[in-house]
Design a protein that fits this description.
484 residues; mainly beta; six-stranded mixed beta sheet; globular
């Protein structure tokens, strides 16, 4: 029996009885809006990415952190990790972004830039492959510092594989960071590793990159002669009660049995909820050049990249959506949440569909991604918009469908829903107690993220009781609901 105490989403199958539900669970995609930023400063280039957003409640602004670099050196060789910087943008509305002059790091003698981290700032660091910042929402943190971060820390080893660890960092202002400790040495970490505090479990969760053998499931061995790209990229989670001691990494448990290579994880806590959401990039590498590549956009640049490594030309990426209530068991949709899109000279590459992490807090959700990765053109970041709670809906076409919950207990005197219908369509909601008493709504039609549901009787009469709920839909979608 489930307790419903806040906003409930229809994104997974935890609340609904699949044996009695015939409404379709439909995945929705965000709508592309305007281009938000061209990364054309001298310290930027076509490698900029790994965008992630936090809110500064002191300055009342959004901050977006990202890596800045150019994928190619002037001689055509691949970039060096030592060339990568971490930068920050600021915005009042999470739509219009600006580079603040932070005066922290001198780039070629000039401190008028938005760089916050450079390799030179850390002793022995070979280069920056990722850097993730989050605001610590723990009301009683044992590790001080409102802003915390994780990054891959690689130190050269002349006798074997380089020493790699996932390091933790702390900061009071979100700009000046210092090393704090080690999260783990068990993993590969060569993507945007993420972490967050979960208020319900009172734990920190950290999500990292690792590799496993597709046939045996065994972890990748860095001492092995087998190339790492022969293994499957995966996501693993660690937990901590204090941001100091962490559990051993464990692979995420998915409802789907498809063992896709997952590049980034892009996991965060959905705003004003306890639900984890993730947007893993799915890595797809064709094994050989085919006639389709002759017709696909970007042929010449693709062939040029293959001189460095075949996969730089043969691989493409898209993005999935997944959600979790405990951070370990995940409901993942294998249909793409983001596709590379209509072909042009800046997409359909290994690096397309890398979404930002974190959200604005409003009636419409904003996400960001980029074009021109790997291509001789500055990275272009664009904004995407999605209905609040709108990743997945319970959907019915013109034929009526139903969704019936398992037993749950709620408290409150009102119900609100996030829903949409056509002019012809409608939604009806019926709440039933175990002894057969029913409470029915009126006909519901319209399009609202927060519609109060009128019932034929007082909803408070059923508060605290064990009930089931039946949702009948016709040409309609419902995204979430809440008892207040």
């Amino acid at each position: 029996m489930i307790n419903v105490t806040g906003r409930e989403f229809v994104w997974d199958d935890v609340l609904f009885d699949s044996s009695k539900t015939n409404a379709e669970r439909r995945l929705h995609q965000p709508v592309r809006k305007e281009d938000s930023m061209v990364f054309d400063k001298p310290w930027e280039g076509n490698g900029c990415g790994y965008f992630h957003i936090v809110y500064d409640d002191v300055k009342n602004i959004y901050r977006m952190y990202y890596l800045s670099f150019n994928m190619y050196n002037p001689d055509g060789s691949l970039y060096k990790l030592s060339d990568v910087n971490v930068c920050c943008l600021e915005s009042k509305d999470c739509i219009n972004w600006e580079r603040p002059n932070l005066n922290i790091y001198s780039y070629k003698g000039n401190r008028n830039n938005n760089i916050i981290i450079n390799t030179d700032m850390f002793e022995g660091l070979m280069g920056i492959d990722n850097f993730y910042v989050n605001v610590d929402t723990n009301p009683k943190p044992k590790v001080k510092g409102k802003y915390k971060a994780v990054m891959l820390y690689t130190i050269r080893n002349l006798k074997g594989p380089n020493f790699r660890k996932l390091a933790s960092l702390v900061s009071d202002d979100g700009y000046n960071f210092k090393l704090h400790g080690i999260v783990t040495e068990s993993g590969y970490f060569d993507t945007l590793n993420t972490f967050m505090y979960h208020k319900e479990t009172k734990k920190y969760y950290c999500y990292i990159r690792a590799f496993h053998d597709k046939e045996t499931g065994k972890d990748y061995d860095r001492n092995s002669s087998i190339p790492v790209n022969s293994y499957v990229r995966d996501i693993r989670v660690l937990q901590s009660e204090d941001f100091i001691k962490w559990t051993e990494p464990q692979r995420l448990n998915f409802n789907s049995k498809n063992d896709y290579p997952l590049y980034t994880n892009c996991i965060s806590i959905y705003p004003n909820s306890s639900m984890f959401v993730g947007f893993p990039t799915r890595y797809v590498e064709r094994k050989e050049w085919t006639q389709n590549f002759d017709e696909l956009c970007g042929k010449e640049e693709r062939l040029s990249r293959m001189k460095l490594d075949n996969r730089f030309g043969l691989a493409t990426t898209d993005c999935l959506f997944m959600c979790s209530r405990d951070g370990v068991k995940w409901y993942r949709y294998d249909e793409a949440f983001l596709r590379p899109g209509v072909e042009h000279d800046g997409n359909w590459v290994y690096g397309s569909c890398y979404p930002s992490v974190g959200f604005n807090n409003g009636d419409e959700l904003y996400m960001f991604a980029h074009d021109y990765h790997w291509i001789h053109h500055p990275t272009v970041m664009y904004r995407m918009a999605l209905r609040k709670d709108g990743f997945v809906s319970l959907h019915a076409g013109i034929a009526k469908k139903k969704a019936i919950t398992k037993q749950f207990k709620f408290t409150g005197s009102e119900m609100h829903i996030n829903f949409s219908t056509s002019a012809y369509g409608n939604v009806y909601i019926t709440i039933r107690t175990k002894d057969g008493k029913e409470l029915k709504s009126c006909e519901l039609f319209g399009d609202s993220i927060d519609r109060r549901v009128p019932f034929t009787r007082n909803l408070a009469d059923f508060s605290g009781k064990i009930v089931t709920m039946e949702i009948e839909l016709c040409d309609a979608d419902i995204y979430s609901f809440e008892f207040t």
